[in-house]
Write a structure and sequence with these properties.
The protein is of the alpha+beta class. It contains ten helices and 26 strands. The chain folds into four domains: about 5-70, no CATH class; about 115-135 and about 185-280, Phage tail protein beta-alpha-beta fold, CATH 3.55.50; about 280-345, Ribosomal Protein S8, Chain: A, domain 1, CATH 3.30.1370.120; about 350-375 and about 385-400 and about 405-580, no CATH class. Strand 21 and strand 22 form a beta hairpin.
Length: about 575
């Protein structure tokens, strides 16, 4: 028989103000068991039932009060902010693996091996199997959710550099380690049904002789069927379908998800950028022989993506000695030295010969007709003006097009063989008095450097230079020739020509008018050939008076000794340009 005092001690030993609700329920059940024993041991009377009800009611009320007091004494947690600040010392996980259960799978069912995979070829075969449930469902799949990699970008400069294409066995260059592998064209047949990726990679390793190391995140099942496919193509297909990438080191291939390899490459790049900030600087002096130091300095210190130096590098040029002083990282200095070796080279030069000829109207057309005439020999072959590498006959005369007369202005090409005949014709034209060589300038210029030849006069005129103040200014009436040659790899020369002919026009209150004629073109000619630009005409309209000295001035009778003539003469200006590449020994 158990007394009430003993029941009270048991209640006090089981009770605690800091107990959790679950502990209170367990202790209440223990007290109920004790009360049941006590009630059975004693005679069932009203006193036992009454005290049992009171104790149970006290337990319930005490449990509620204990939970309320515990919650009231604990301060509430502050609300979470919208954006959590990341501590650089804490490495966030790059990917989160989530286990997704299959709602159609019966866990109580026994799993059986119902799938097998085989790989057959002329050398041997490999097999792999995958476990599935009896009802045909596949086991839970590891779904990888990539998260954005928040990396420190303080060491990076400029826009993000795109990653190179993923390496594949089919496009990888052959190495010495490939000698121990299977032949590239060796076919493989695969038949996998929901097989594990690890088992499939193991089959490839046994067939090809490769040492394949798979990352722990290479999981999941794969189903594929390939029939007589080259094993390199089959391996690349397996990687592409499952979002995998490879990294090869000799005869060892590491297979991992593409996101992992990309993150690894980015970490390497960031580590290299951070190490560049700590690497000591070095200085070197470069002696330039052909290029100007100031031009090279501007090339190295360009802005943005055009900059060759690193962000810590600097360059200074000395125009007097043509020296270039560069301070940068040691690796970058080696690159700059290789760059200067390609830039500091002698530039090829071109001799430009120009002949400016002024003759009577139509002389350039007649000249082209005479030079383009060809005779026929007894054997029927054409003789005449030939040149060039192919020895073709050049037809230099202008021809009518679509019913229109042939143009008298334009551009004509003479081969190198015709240049000597052209000089003879121009000399004969000047001897006959039908033309005159106004100027024969010759200038040597470097490749892709503009040469300017200008000849003429400057005309003064009154012009206002301020309020109520006038001064003398000048206008040019010149013949200007600009030539920029470009030597092609085959020895031909491309000429950018700009010819301007200005002449004095009518007199006005503001000064003399300037008549302008301008021709601009781009042409390709062989070394030693000639370019002819014609069609620049000038008209001379005047009245000429000739008289006998003294007698021509007598009034009335002097008309007998004077002769008046109206002269309307039209002349043509032609420019012949011959480029010759200067040979450097």
């Amino acid at each position: 028989m158990m007394s009430s005092a003993k029941l009270a001690r048991i209640a006090r030993s089981c009770w605690g103000w800091g107990a959790s609700p679950g502990a209170c329920l367990l202790r209440g059940a223990r007290l109920a068991r004790v009360f049941r024993v006590a009630c059975v041991s004693r005679s069932p009377n009203a006193w036992c039932l009454r005290h049992a009800r009171r104790v149970c009611l006290g337990l319930v009320v005490g449990s509620v009060l204990s939970v309320g007091i515990a919650r009231a004494s604990t301060p509430p947690l502050p609300p979470l902010p919208d954006h959590m600040l990341r501590d650089d010392a804490v490495a966030l996980p790059r990917e989160i693996a989530v286990e997704v259960p299959n709602p159609f799978r019966d866990d109580s069912a026994e799993t059986t091996d119902v799938s097998k995979a085989s790989a057959s070829s002329a050398a041997g075969a490999s097999a792999a199997s995958a476990e599935i449930t009896a009802d045909g469902s596949s086991p839970p799949t590891q779904i990888s959710t990539p998260t954005r990699d928040v990396a420190a970008t303080s060491a990076l400069e400029g826009p993000p550099t795109p990653l190179p294409p993923l390496p594949r066995l089919g496009s990888a260059p052959k190495t010495a380690a490939d000698a121990n592998l299977a032949a590239d064209d060796k076919a493989i047949s695969l038949n996998f049904q929901r097989a594990e990726l690890g088992a499939v990679l193991n089959a490839f390793a046994q067939f090809t002789g490769l040492n394949i190391v798979a990352s722990e995140r290479v999981r999941g099942a794969v189903s594929l069927r390939l029939d007589k496919v080259p094993w390199r193509t089959a391996f690349d297909t397996l990687l592409d379908v499952n979002g995998l990438a490879m990294e090869r080191h000799g005869n060892v291939i590491w297979v991992a998800p593409q996101a992992d390899l990309a993150a690894r490459e980015r970490q390497r790049f960031e580590a290299h950028a951070r190490s560049a900030d700590l690497e000591p600087l070095a200085s070197r002096t470069f002696q330039l022989h052909y290029a100007r130091a100031e031009d090279v300095r501007r090339l190295l210190t360009g802005s943005g993506n055009q900059r060759v130096l690193s962000k810590r590098g600097a360059a200074t040029a000395d125009p007097r000695t043509n020296l270039l002083f560069v301070t940068d990282l040691e690796a970058r200095l080696a690159q700059i030295a290789a760059l200067l070796g390609s830039v500091d080279r002698p530039t090829r030069q071109v001799l430009i010969e120009a002949r400016i000829v002024e003759g009577e109207h139509g002389f350039s057309r007649n000249l082209g007709v005479r030079l383009s005439m060809a005779a026929t020999s007894e054997d029927g072959s054409a003789r005449g003006l030939t040149g060039g590498k192919d020895g073709a006959v050049y037809d230099l005369s202008a021809r009518p097009i679509a019913g229109f007369d042939a143009a008298t202005a334009g551009l004509t090409l003479f081969a190198a063989a015709a240049t000597r005949l052209l000089n003879i014709e121009l000399s004969a034209l000047e001897a006959e008095g039908r033309g005159e060589i106004v100027s024969s300038p010759r200038v040597v210029t470097a490749d892709r450097m503009k040469a300017v030849v200008e000849q003429g006069t400057e005309l003064p005129y009154q012009a206002k230079v301020g309020q109520g103040v006038s001064g003398v200014q000048f206008r040019r009436a010149t013949l200007k020739l600009e030539v920029e040659p470009q030597i092609m790899p085959d020895g031909r020369v491309v000429l950018d020509l700009d010819v301007a002919k200005d002449s004095v026009g009518e007199q006005t209150d503001a000064g003399p008018a300037i008549n302008t004629k301008h021709v601009q073109t781009r042409v390709e000619v062989e070394d030693g050939g000639t370019v002819s630009i014609g069609g620049i005409y000038a008209t001379d309209d005047r009245d000429d008076v000739t008289r006998v000295p003294l007698l021509g001035k007598i009034p009335f009778l002097g008309a007998l000794f004077r002769h008046r003539a109206h002269r309307d003469q039209r002349s043509e200006l032609a420019v012949f340009i011959t480029p010759r590449v200067v040979q450097i020994n």
